[in-house]
Amino acid sequence: MSIIKAAAGPALKAASIMKAVAFATYKEWAAYRSHAMVSLFVGPVYFLVQIFIWKAVFSSRGSINGLSLDQMINYFGVAVLINYLIMDFADWNLQMLISTGKFLSYMLRPMSHIYFALSQKVGHRVLGFTIEFIPVYLILFFVFGVRIVPARPVFAVISIMLGFIMMFLVDYCVGITAFWLTRTSGVRRMFLLLRDICSGMFLPLTFFPDVLQKILFYLPFQFIAYVPVRVCVGSYELGGISLDIPRIVGIQAVAVLAMSVFTVVFFKLGTKRFTGVGA
Amino acid sequence: MIRALDIYITSMKNSFAARMAYRADFFFCCIMIFISELLFPLLTMLIYSTGGTFPGWNLAEVMVLQGVFMLSKGAANLLFFGVVYNTLSRVREGTYDLLMIKPVSTLYISVASGFEPDSIGTVLGGLLVIAYSLGKLSQPNAMQWLRFALIFFLSVLVMFAFAVLMAATVFKWVGNSRIYEIFDNITAFGNYPRSIFSKSFQNIISFIIPVGIIAFYPASALLGKDISGILPSICICVIFLLGSLALWKFMLSRYTSAGG
């Protein structure tokens, strides 16, 4: 019993810290809610463009890469919505703190900046859920008639949560490069583009050449959006590999764990390079 | 005129000098912008490689259209789109007054000091895509090139109107950097042949928000395709530009220097 109490103590403390940071971030960003509400325009317009594109493309064919027009529209609908749940800018934030020297104050705090930034993301996305995700979901549902209901709701929720963490870890690693480069706009641009292409945000990954699909299967990017979208849609396939939903979510969890370890090690290497320049 | 040019060249030199402080990042940025701008043509190639097509347009023609879009966007980013960030950041900090007290038009100095050297990558990307795609098509004659040049000038003018419109908006909508997303979304319609949109949408992007003039009309002129409807579109472009300048003047008069 005492062992459980001893283990529960730090976990409760961590949860309490996350709650406090997330709440503060929520309040901070709620002041700029009109900025977030731009999503009410941007998301549906992006979706509308996709509808026009794919209707034109499918006008001469019944299916492309095994996907029908309805499935394709559903894919993009889910991708738009999931983006509101997982998006972040940990990379920009971290590189800004490093290049201005403000990161110094975080090194003196009794908690890891990785955990602090993750907690900030939680607060930011809770706000996003209420003022971006729900309204856009309703717009897609009532205006475009897209009925998005996950085939396996529990696995869909787990997969989106893992996608949320994976997105954070990938972005955070991009931010860590600022310990070496100071100015990282070029690197950030490259990685974010690579991330968005390779995570299936722009196009289902099954549209890529077979060799590339096989490579993408072993990279972390597909676990950000492609896997959560396919889990919501109810089937998974990449590079000729078809997996059932529980199995791909399990693989996603392992990938997130591996990426977490990599991030911590990379962060520790980076902090050794930090000189406080700009402070 | 010479003085105005002198101011612009000085601002350009300053922007280059500032970027050269981080040379590696600048060159990396240019290369990355160049690669990232190839995204739309890449996606189009993937769509066509799976057998999908945009009715009435082959792959090379769509790529010319997207190359023209990149070129117009690149020219705009390089020459004057910095006015948006310039206004956005200065209004947020409450330091826009520093531009207002200068003995030159506030809009002009905002545009000139917003020169963005990184966008050379977009211009190069656009030129490369156009050259590569035209190589796969029958070569345009002199008249087609002339038509293209004239309509492309209007395309850049529309981009300028968008930039002024966005910059004017941030006087009231302080610090909203997501204004770029709104712009990207609206102009995304210009990245594809007009024929893929419904009739009502074709009218909207031709006669209400002249997005069609950014790439569809110039590319059609270059490819010798039908450009009927261009004359009313030109009138709309001029109205759009005048409207954006009027809005700028109105919003500037409401600037309070309070920051945000």
Give structural notes:
The complex is a heterodimer of chains A (about 280) and B (about 260). With about 280 residues, chain A is mostly helical. Chain A contains 13 helices and four strands. In chain A, helix 3 (about 40-60) crosses helix 7 (about 115-140), helix 4 (about 70-85) packs antiparallel against helix 7 (about 115-140) and helix 5 packs parallel to helix 8. The termini of chain A are far apart. In chain A, about 40% of the residues are buried. The model of chain A has no long low-confidence stretch (mean pLDDT about 90). By secondary structure, chain B is mostly helical. Chain B contains 13 helices and no strands. Chain B has helices spanning about 1-20, 25-35, 40-50, 60-80, 80-95, 95-100, 105-110, 120-135, 140-170, 180-185, 200-205, 215-225, 230-255. In chain B, helix 5 (about 80-95) packs across helix 7 (about 105-110). The two termini of chain B are about 35 Å apart. Classes of the chains: A mainly alpha (about 280), B mainly alpha (about 260). The interface of A and B includes residues 35, 42, 45 and 60 of A.
In terms of topology, how is this protein built?
The complex is a heterodimer of chains A (279) and B (260).
Chain A: H1 2-30, H2 33-36, H3 39-58, E1 63-64, E2 67-68, H4 69-86, H5 90-100, H6 103-107, H7 113-142, H8 153-176, H9 178-181, H10 185-198, H11 210-217, H12 226-233, E3 236-238, E4 241-243, H13 245-273
Antiparallel strand pairs in A: 1-2, 3-4
Helix pairs in contact in A: 1-7, 3-4, 3-7, 4-7, 4-12, 5-8, 8-10, 8-12, 8-13
Chain B: H1 2-20, H2 23-37, H3 39-49, H4 59-79, H5 82-93, H6 97-100, H7 106-112, H8 120-134, H9 142-169, H10 179-187, H11 199-207, H12 216-223, H13 230-253
Helix pairs in contact in B: 2-8, 3-4, 4-8, 4-9, 4-12, 5-7, 5-9, 9-12, 9-13
